[in-house]
Recover the amino acids of this structure.
């Protein structure tokens, strides 16, 4: 990092303090640690250079996001079966034309093998990109109090969710359609999980004139309609009934939305029931996840479901439901699930199953850091110390208290 850039970062943090931003008040986030964010900002204000690489990387991403044209559901060349361009639309990724049929219909499933044609002309990538960019921009605003970042985050949100000409209808009725089989299915609901990132980011914009009270009220109305659809529609109920990562991510999404909407009792019920319906039902006493091991990308899906479990655990902290230390009498627990996967943080250790594609082991240091910052475990700590180094420019250093 150049001296000029370093000086700019420090002066940005100082400007935030001088502008009247309350750096002692934790933001009302649910997955991002409010106290950790306050501590990181205060540390940067004091001139602590240890966090400078992570902040520089974050601001570089935010600066790129400032240049993007706000996407909307109206951009896609394809339209859902409803005929309404405002409806979210995507294809199931693992479905391919039947080579024995002239029209290829109905499509056939090839688990884990993404049909590149399903990624073209739909809303999936754009929706995720908007949500992730809003979180990045909002974090940049939190650390610098630079209104450019808040204004862009607000604009992206308005265009995708609020403006009448471009807004997405609050449902995923037509997500993961399969040609010749269905116009949309419950499994597609997993594609809205990034909405959690968007809501976490917007919680950091409190105090910015760019994200107004009218904006907050309008988005709350949209979120309430989407939450109602998730909880009552056939597709929503189908996804609730899934027994693998889809069911876990469904619970994470609805619990997060319930908390955003102030429905604390409902969130607590979802997360309490999830201890048995998700955790105990999907994790074996040895820590394996059979539903994920059955997949053609078994390591990747095991890590993906573990992330969903950890998301539920973080949400449980807000309603007094302890997922971190929960264990059944025969030993099913998050600790067991992490211990099963943790040794594979060693890149030289072969995964015992021949997968279609290698799983991204880079997720394991984050899960280890997440768990060890809350629960002691000497064996897991040893793996973390050997293979869990968090890069100096990783934004995790700004977002969480790493194990001491």
């Amino acid at each position: 990092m150049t001296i000029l850039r370093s000086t700019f970062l420090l002066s940005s943090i100082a400007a935030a303090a001088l502008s009247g931003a309350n750096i002692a008040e934790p933001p009302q986030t649910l997955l991002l640690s409010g106290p950790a964010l306050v501590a990181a900002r205060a540390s940067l204000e004091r001139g602590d250079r240890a966090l400078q690489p992570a902040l520089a990387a974050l601001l570089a991403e935010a600066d790129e996001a400032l240049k993007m044209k706000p996407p909307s559901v109206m951009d896609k060349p394809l339209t859902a079966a409803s005929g309404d361009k405002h409806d979210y639309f995507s294809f199931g990724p693992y479905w391919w034309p039947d080579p024995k049929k002239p029209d290829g219909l109905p499509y056939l499933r090839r688990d884990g093998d993404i049909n590149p044609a399903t990624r073209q002309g739909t809303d999936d990538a754009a929706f995720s990109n908007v949500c992730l960019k809003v979180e990045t921009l909002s974090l940049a605003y939190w650390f610098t109090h630079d209104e450019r970042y808040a204004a862009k985050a607000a604009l992206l949100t308005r265009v995708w969710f609020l403006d009448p000409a471009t807004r997405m209808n609050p449902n995923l009725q037509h997500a993961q359609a399969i040609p010749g089989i269905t116009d949309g299915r419950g499994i597609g609901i997993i594609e809205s999980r990034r909405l959690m990132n968007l809501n976490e980011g917007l919680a950091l914009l409190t105090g910015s004139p760019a994200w107004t009270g009218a904006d907050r009220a309008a988005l709350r109305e949209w979120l309430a309609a989407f939450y109602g659809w998730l909880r009552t529609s056939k597709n929503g109920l189908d996804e609730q009934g899934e027994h693998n990562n889809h069911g876990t991510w469904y619970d994470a999404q609805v619990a997060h939305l319930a908390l955003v909407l102030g429905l604390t009792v409902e969130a607590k019920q979802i997360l309490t029931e999830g201890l048995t319906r998700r955790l105990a039902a999907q994790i074996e006493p040895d820590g394996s996840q059979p539903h994920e091991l059955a997949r053609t990308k078994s390591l990747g899906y095991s890590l993906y479901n573990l992330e969903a479990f950890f998301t539920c655990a973080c949400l449980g902290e807000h309603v007094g439901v302890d997922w971190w230390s929960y264990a059944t009498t025969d030993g099913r627990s998050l600790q067991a699930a992490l211990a099963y996967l943790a040794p594979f943080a060693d890149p030289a250790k072969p995964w015992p199953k021949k997968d279609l594609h290698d799983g991204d082991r880079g997720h394991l240091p984050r899960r280890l850091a997440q768990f060890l910052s809350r629960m002691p475990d000497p064996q897991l700590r040893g793996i973390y110390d050997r293979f869990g180094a968090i890069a100096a420019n990783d934004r995790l250093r700004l977002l969480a208290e790493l194990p001491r």
About this structure: The chain has a mean pLDDT of 94. Residues 124-144 form the longest helix (21 residues). Strands lie at 95-96, 108-109.
